[in-house]
């Protein structure tokens, strides 16, 4: 072949210019010699286009090649399809598979398949494209006996592992020349999801031994993988005391590890599940049993401490909620008192200017009430004025004082409440005194109103007075508190929460359904 034509052809290919490549091919006397030509590194034009992800150029070159010329390997031991799969060029891979589906089975000198190379680079789309053509590619093994599943399990590519297993679940049982399955490889890595996926496909590989007699538990221990050891031990069918060809159990291997956090975690996990040294397998190891018992006690105490912490947190939250509700109740009482005080003051103010019989309109006594000389009216004026000024005093106190603390708010309310009692009594007395004036000669009506209203007000105030005295002098509460504490001391669990008793007593005033101030 003309050297200048050869150079022009590969220069056009590397540029990715399809028109330039077509022009060179059309100018050549023998296009087959161009397609068979190789660059300095042994690459064909199709190889260069595939490696460079030149999809349009590959589409033009593919019809010019046969499967034999398309699969010529470069000095890197890869052909055009293999390098496209390894590089993650999905479009080019699909073009190859459409023309030559069998290209996916052509391996390099180490029997590495394109699927293996794509999976090793986590190219999921290419893995799916190859398996869509032929799912048996998942069973192709390298010269060392490893499948693509072995390799990706070691790396920890979960989505590739899941895809391979979904296409061929039996691939998890394939072993390499060392007798190791994909599970042996997975526990060397750090992705527990991969281990779970493999065991979900076939749990029988859990205790599979390699040619040295090592199970996955041996390998995980030797590789210092505490998380993997703990995961494997969660399976009931695990043989925790399996002995390898060197007469070692997983516990023997763990004790040979350098001292550190990983060794501590692995040994503790193994002992919790009854692990023994090889020399003690089949014998009653008192030391191991003692360590296991201590470990169980430690675990139980730890769980109890966690539960205690959760209980303390719940009690603290309940305390906060009760305090919040109590503050809201006190604030609602303050608002209600203010509103009632304004209402009584308004009624008292309006009542003095809306008397029965009205006022004199002329003469020297203009504006004087017609009933001004009656004793009942004079009592009404005195009591009405008392209710008015007490209510106004309450309003002034409520709009002036700002009490942030709940205790201070309760003190203000206890004082203001007594003033409101006086205002209510004054209003009641004013109403009754004026009733004797309004009814005229029918005094029995006023007496009947007094007989009805007086006992109602008196019984109400007596009951409220009892509640106030009970709140102040704690009637009957000492006995109830002694009973509660005595019943609580009978339980051992209560002693663990004794530090909570003071907290509960601290807000015992807040958990009453009702009390008076």
Summarize the structure.
The protein is an all-alpha fold and 517 residues long. It has 25 helices and no strands.
Helix and strand arrangement:
Blueprint (H helix, E strand, L loop, with lengths): L2 H13 L2 H10 L3 H6 L8 H7 L3 H7 L5 H4 L9 H8 L2 H10 L14 H7 L3 H10 L14 H8 L2 H10 L14 H5 L5 H10 L14 H7 L3 H8 L16 H7 L4 H12 L13 H66 L23 H26 L5 H33 L4 H31 L3 H12 L3 H5 L1 H9 L11
Helix pairs in contact: 1-2, 4-5, 4-7, 7-9, 8-10, 9-10, 9-11, 10-12, 12-14, 15-16, 15-17, 16-18, 17-18, 19-20, 19-21, 20-21, 21-22
Subcellular location: Membrane
Membrane topology: Multi-pass membrane protein
GO cellular component, one term: plasma membrane
How would you describe this protein?
The chain has about 525 residues and is mostly helical. The chain has three domains: about 1-140, Alpha Horseshoe (Serine Threonine Protein Phosphatase 5, Tetratricopeptide repeat); about 170-285, Serine Threonine Protein Phosphatase 5, Tetratricopeptide repeat (Alpha Horseshoe), CATH 1.25.40; about 300-345 and about 370-510, no CATH class. It has 25 helices and no strands. The protein has helices at about 5-15, 20-25, 30-35, 45-50, 55-60, 65-70, 80-85, 90-100, 115-120, 125-135, 150-155, 160-165, 180-185, 190-200, 215-220, 225-235, 250-255, 260-270, 285-350, 375-400, 405-440, 445-475, 475-490, 490-495, 500-505. Helix 10 packs parallel to helix 12 (about 160-165), helix 15 (about 215-220) runs parallel beside helix 17 (about 250-255) and helix 17 (about 250-255) runs antiparallel to helix 18 (about 260-270). The chain is elongated and about 145 Å long.
